[in-house]
UniProtKB/TrEMBL annotation, chains A, B:
InterPro entries: Copper_CuA, Cupredoxin, N2O_reductase_N, Nitrous_oxide_Rdtase_Sec-dep, Nos_propeller, NosZ/Cyto_c_oxidase_sub2, WD40/YVTN_repeat-like_dom_sf. One of its GO terms (cellular component) is cell envelope. NCBIfam families: nitrous_NosZ_Gp (TIGR04246). Coiled coil: none annotated. Its EC number is 1.7.2.4. Residues 1-22 form the signal peptide. It comes from the Bacteria. This is Sec-dependent nitrous-oxide reductase. It is found in: Cell envelope.
Length: 655, 655
């Protein structure tokens, strides 16, 4: 144990040394005038031009998904997913509160990690993007037509939903693996009895090919390890899914020492097609549980949350040939599969070398039953039997590997702060470039598919320090853009990233941009309180509930004067934006209300609740600078005492 | 009325035509290879280099303040101000919830509009930046040392706090004017009785020069107009403050027609030094009211909210020489003062021309009592007597003017979508450049001070449409960067902006960057539950309240195993980050908790509440990728049934 601990401390010290170097290293790459000028032109997207790629980055502790353009590094949008988002009122408006419902109740924000774009035949198809909620385990599906979150499904029996949300090569499944093992089902038991008793659930969520709707097909209940990352087999290995494990020691305390004892942990290889067949034939066990399934409907502009009461679990030891364990050096993080599907790369984060497993050799070993024992009944393959090769990288702390379209792979090294380029098949190192500082994951557009677009690699760095002007103790994270069209990588740009992007996925803009929706059609608006014509605006009372069906159009609210509201009322503003032009939102703000402000896109209806507590005459106004007369887009509401007998009245002057 | 209405409709149609043009216009400016290359180099900040300016942009309906670098257009930080912010837990953590307290209760988000940087002798001094909450009227003060919100003061008797938050030239005051007039004090009355009965409060908030602490010194109760924007006098006009008004018709409905009847509205000129003297001598009337004053203490890392029960109001008609009205063409928006303090520019948004008032002529007219009647007892000056000149711009819809350091002014025109450069003094138009599309405000670093830094102008555009890759119906807003070092402006870059930036302020980086704080000192941490040494970590119970004082350091939580928690407990996690290195945050996430996740900077303590509802063993983990062993930074909490008699216990293994 002492040796391991010392090694770790040494590695960590290396991190500090490397990460404390100044920014001169960065400067040197830009100090040559001609090179600087060439790099400037490479990342410059002039006014009127468009970026070549959409990059989607997880928000980490923002709980959202951000959209960047490459090569410019400009952020085009923050899509609210697992978190309340004041800008659009997501998670606050009556219609979207159900999106954040879980079996634990309403959870206002989460930690989002790994976006993955839907695929057909192993290639990016640009229909949807999926992302995992890490803390309160969930998977979200976002439309790449509207760039809005359409669905969130909770994952039961899971805790720290980290080895998620990656898709199989026809998006048959989006897969979610627990990071932490827990009692399944949960029960009150001593933490010290973890070993041998806790389980790790790997969930396979079926995706409807027409609608994108998700449903948990089955959960594989694995030994109580930690499951870190995962990737699908593709091409020849389609039908399999690979998960890195760590803490195979099953320690429950002081993991930074106790979970690094074993020289090798595992990659778990799951033959999901075999398990699918098993459950289709009635296999598996239905377990009572409780998890939320939240769906947003784009016509009613409203979400509903349904609680689901059972889940199908399978015991992998009961399905011969379903699961194998591939020994992999020390606490691997990333688990990556090359475009051919033959090579499975284990990035052993406390190791110097990269280990590459051969899928063909794995099948051979399985066929020949060459096992090296088992773990809780799951066969362990022999390391040497399945080894395709080793990359003698010379780096420290490999984390994640992606691929280009020329047979090269690119691996990040957290501790030695660099990206290393190497040749798939020969395992030779071709190039290495420093990152500033402590790179986590990296991304090549399509780098997790059969068809990567090897023009750029983006390094997502964990330490920012002096890369930008300082902004106090808290800094944005930082990405770096490398041109990888030549033999050598060229660092061409630094750009800050919002939240803590852990992971990213990117797609050529041409594959999706023409499909982007511009407005919501008013004639398809099915919201129960929608006002599709100004003259239909109205105010109705039901006890102390008041419903205001209000319209907005440049530059008028209808109604704009309302009387007869009383202290203690629950006032619901249902606001419809009547515009049908692209990019003409209106906003609505009501002073002092709890959910007091909302942005509404053309053709959309949103609802906020106001509970007036004080008598008086209170203004409302449009929050989006919508027209030359935006400042005139306002109105008043009179609030009378609770006991007042003033009747509801309102003006429809705007007709 | 009909003529006015037709004019307005014509202007609005013009907006549509202009805003629907394609992006080829933008492209033309970049289509010449040499020019494109030169512009690329102008905006390129190579890896290892730093931007020249900090630009601070309001978030609009995000309620926050964003920090950009110029010329790169990269966003360095989003500072939470008036809105809950999942990324840092602002407005969710126990310590920061009081920051969003108001007289209306807890308000989770707002609409932020006009940042202004503190000044000394009329020049930017980089101590603080102020910004207004528009919907629930408030002013916030943000430290430019920590880039965190330190204080928020509510503004009573106000509604739509829009003509805010601008500072006088030694930051004696930050000024906040109501946009909407309301009954003062509020009362239940018919909206139709608005005219003559509602009031518009203009608030002067004193700023303590040592601490920055704000206190409302007095409110001027003005006639029931709308007050749109404001700027301080400077240099020779120091001691005065100028506010644009519109809706001097005092209409209460259909304002887009009814508030555009008068050919001229007013700029209200307030002699605040005279009023200050008046109130220092006992003038004014104390009015009972109720407003929140929220202060964040950087040593206890905690905010407190105090309710203040009275405010000093003044009736301007009782103070001779205090307030005058300057007739200004049609519904002016921006109200801008040139660096010399001599010229006051009214940007009449429904007018084609810019009207420039002369401060010297204004004083003359006042001295000679050349009035053209009064409005509710406030003298109206004669338009011709105070006119310095008119800019025959040829544009439509002037909104906002800023200044460079060479005697030029730059005005945005919303309807004709352009920036027009003109000469101060001769009023001749020198240059005009299109904006894409519908520009609102613009910004030159220091452009609202005695000493502008005239290198760039940033146009903040209200319509984005095709400027970037499409992202569904909802788009980010868009800024455009012009090089203004030559005679002609040169459009060099487009960059998207987060939220809806209404307004911006910028400062040369050299003025503040060396002052930026890097960590919070652990030896200054006065949080009552801070753990400054791992061995002090502990868990205590008081009835059903459990306080966990927990430490975080690479790569360990102390304690990391906790038992004895019961269903129904209120569990407070007080989490201290023991790191003392720059840019080493840790995060904490607890599954399914309502406020379940928090980011903590080095030396800081934050608290979140967890109310476990289910028995079981639940993990927690670090949310910030902090070290090579980040994935090992985790722990477990055992939750037993309510009636269980298991005592609290925890492990301090990490010592």
């Amino acid at each position: 144990m002492k040796t391991t601990f010392k090694l770790i401390m040494l590695l960590l010290s290396a991190t500090f040394l490397l990460s404390s170097c100044g920014n001169n290293n960065g400067k040197s790459s830009g100090s040559d005038g001609a090179l600087r000028s060439s790099n400037a032109e490479k990342v410059y997207v002039a006014p009127g031009e468009h970026d070549e790629f959409y990059a989607f980055m997880s928000g980490g502790y923002s709980g959202n998904l951000t959209v960047y353009g490459l090569p410019s590094g400009r952020m085009f949008k923050e899509i609210p997913v697992f978190s309340q988002f004041p800008t659009s009122g997501y998670g606050y408006s009556e219609e979207t509160v159900p999106m954040l419902n879980t079996s634990f109740g309403f959870v206002p924000w989460d930690d989002s990690h790994h976006p993955d774009i839907s695929q057909t035949n192993g290639e990016l198809d640009g229909r949807w993007i999926f992302i995992n909620g890490n803390n309160t385990p969930r998977i979200a599906r976002i439309s790449l037509k509207t760039f809005e979150t359409e669905e969130i499904i909770e994952v039961p029996n899971s805790a720290g939903n980290h080895s998620s949300s990656f898709v199989t090569e026809n998006t048959e499944y989006v897969v979610a693996g627990t990071r932490f093992s827990i009692p399944v089902p949960q029960k009150d038991m001593p933490i010290s009895e973890y070993k041998g008793n806790f389980k790790g659930a790997l969930s396979f969520i079926k995706v409807d090919q027409e609608t994108g709707r998700m449903a948990i097909k089955f959960q594989v209940l694995m030994p109580g390890f930690n499951y870190d990352l995962s990737h699908p087999g593709r091409n020849k290995s389609h039908g399999w899914f690979f998960f890195t494990t760590y803490n195979t020691e099953e320690a429950n305390s002081l993991l930074e020492v106790n979970a690094s004892q074993n020289d090798k942990d595992f990659i778990a290889a799951i033959n999901w097609k075999k398990i699918e067949e098993y459950v289709n034939n009635g296999g598996g066990k239905i377990m009572p549980t409780n998890y939320a399934h939240n769906v947003y409907d784009e016509h009613s502009h409203s979400a509903t949350s349904t609680m689901i009461k059972e889940v199908l679990t399978v015991d992998p030891t009961e399905i011969p040939g379903a699961v194998y364990l591939l020994p992999t050096p020390k606490s691997p993080h990333g688990c990556d599969v090359d475009p051919s599907g033959e090579y499975i790369i284990g990035n052993g984060k406390l190791s110097a070398d990269l280990t590459i497993h051969s899928f063909t050799k794995m099948l051979d070993a399985i066929e020949n039953k060459k096992f090296d024992g088992d773990a809780y009944g799951i066969p362990i393959l022999n390391f040497e039997d399945i080894l395709a090769g080793t990359v003698k990288s010379g780096g420290l702390g490999p984390l994640h590997t992606e691929f280009d379209d020329k047979g090269n792979a690119y691996t990040t090294f957290f501790i030695s702060s660099e990206v290393v380029k190497w040749k798939v098949g020969t395992w030779e190192v071709i190039d290495r470039k420093p990152t500033y500082y402590s790179v986590g994951h990296l991304m090549i557009p399509g780098g997790n598919s059969r068809k990567p677009f090897g023009k750029y690699v983006v390094a997502m760095n964990k330490i920012t320090k002096d890369r930008y002007l300082p902004t106090g103790p808290e800094l944005e994270h930082s990405a770096q853009l490398y041109d990888i069209t030549g033999d050598k990588m060229e660092l061409i740009y630094d750009f800050p990233t919002h939240g803590e992007p852990h992971y990213a996925a990117a797609i050529p803009a041409d594959l999706i941009k023409d499909n982007s929706q511009k407005i919501y059609r008013l004639d398809e608006n099915k919201h129960p309180y929608a006002v599709t014509n100004q003259s239909d605006a109205k105010v109705t009372r039901n006890g102390n509930e008041v419903h205001i069906s209000m319209s907005m159009i440049r530059s008028h609210f209808t109604p704009d004067n309302i009387e007869g509201i009383k202290v203690g009322d629950k006032v619901y503003f249902h606001i419809t934006n009547l515009e049908q032009d692209f990019d003409v939102p209106h906003g609505f703000a009501m002073i002092g209300a709890n959910t007091s402000e909302i942005l509404v896109m053309p053709g959309q209806t949103k609802t906020i609740l106001w509970e007036p507590k004080q008598v008086g005459v209170w203004p409302f106004y449009c929050t989006d600078f919508c027209s030359a007369l935006h400042q005139e887009m306002q109105g008043y509401i009179r609030v009378s005492p609770k006991e007042s007998n003033i009747d509801l009245s309102w003006s429809l002057d705007g007709e």
